[in-house]
Amino acid sequence: MKKWNWREGQRPQRRTGAGQYRGWRRGQRSTQEEQWYGQTESRPFRASRRASTAAPGLPSAVFPELPGFYFDPEKNRYFRLLPGHNNCNPLTKEKLQEKEREKERQKMLAEDEKLRKKAPRRGLNSSLVLQKRHLGLVQLHSYCRQVHEVKVSGMRRHKLEIQSTDNSNPNTDNFRLIVADSACERVFTVNDVSHGGCKYGIMSFSSSSRGSLSVQMCDNLYFTNRKVNSICWASVNYPDSHVLLCLVGAADTPGCVSLLPASLFSNSNPDQPGMLCSFKISSAWSCAWCLNPQFDKTFSTGLSHRVILKHAETGRTQTYSTGSDVLAQQFAQRVPVLFNGCRSGEIFSIDLRQRGRRDHNWKASRFHQESAITSVRVLQDENYLLAADMLGQIKLWDVRVTKPVQEYKGHYNQHAYLPVHVCEPEGLLMAVGQDCYTRVWSLQDGHLLRTIPSPYPSANDLIPSVVFSSKIGGCRGLPGLLMAVKHDLYYYPYNTDYQEVGEKSNAG
Fold first, then answer.
1. The pTM is what?
2. How far is CA 460 from the centre of its chain?
3. Looking at domain 160-354+361-425, what is its CATH homologous superfamily?
4. What is the per-residue pLDDT across 115-146, written as a single tens digit (0 to 9) for each?
5. Helix (H) or strand (E) holding 33
6. Separation of alpha carbons 443 and 225, rounded Å
7. In 3-state terms, what secondary structure has residue 264?
8. Pick from 429, 501, 479, 499: which is nearest to 151 by CA?
9. Rounded to whole angstroms, how far apart are CA atoms 350 and 347?
């Protein structure tokens, strides 16, 4: 029997083979190198044991957050985030946010393409809302809002073909602005030209008894190398007989405000009148036309630290000095009052009947928002005014007490000149954000009814321009939304029985 040796009892266990030892050392070194590279050259390194064993379908919230790193669930790796764009590693927070927004946009587009869309909210459909109304379970204002929400949620995108006499030259220039006349029979368009400048013209709309909408581009298109800042329709000889344009100066060419007859854009009338009025200015940000009979044929322009009122025929001019650039304007109709929105966030009104203009006494009312005002809209009840600013805030103001009474949340804007659109017959408010989403609110209670994605990825030069009307194409027109983005024109009907002519012919 072998004696127990105390030296052997303390002998360490047998060492592993040299290959195993080197492999263990090599594996440890590669892991350290991966982590080191991940912190310097943004090479990916694998997640921790807890993260790597998690199911790939789980959200990224189950993975530990590391400051300055992003975890990709598909690749099961961490990537370092850089503060700005880098040619070697373009992975930044901005790129990741843009990727997530594009995924969300594609998801919303796929949802809109479904023939049977789900209800905007659970249990909300037209038959159920009507049944609750008959039973007295829903109040009148809630019933109206729910009906509008059901209709807005059912709007589907239809691409319109723009017909022209020159079919060999399709429109390949991006839309920048579309502005409809009071009857929504014609839409004035401004397109950016690829070689610089812009072109503008008029599209006419008509609806058929079959429930389809057709678009015809007028013959004449005008080109200019200057940027168009603001547009409004003007009623000189008859309603919407002219178009008022604010053109920015370029190089040696000064800016100007031009009043053009609408017949100038069509070749049907050989005796076209010339330009009615045009005067040179340094820079014009906004314009508005007065429809009050006391100051007939009067228009205004908002300049840098000035407001100019001018009579189109006599040329009589009144100038008001302001403390900031006037970016938005609109006249009230029942009383001759002009509302102005400034870059400083100030909103003030000018009563045209007042003669004294000393020490800002001519300002009938004044109130402020937190950022530059991009749009002002006077409601039919002219005691209320809508104003939007560059912080994305849209507020409904009571002019009598100069206090906001409603706010419409969800709009996104940082620095763009974006208008708001009101359709009071339908009780809707619309605005296109800088993120290229069109949002629709209930005008009465500020409830966000729908968010409509753009057909194209979001970009600063591809922000859609929209028009909403209860009668597109005239008194017998169709209700809905017109959206111009890139070089395409889309129609979102406000009813469910709309069909395009092509769809009907294919069905027949």
1. 0.78
2. 10
3. YVTN repeat-like/Quinoprotein amine dehydrogenase (2.130.10.10)
4. 666 555 555 655 666 656 556 666 666 666 67
5. helix 18-40
6. 39
7. helix
8. 479
9. 10
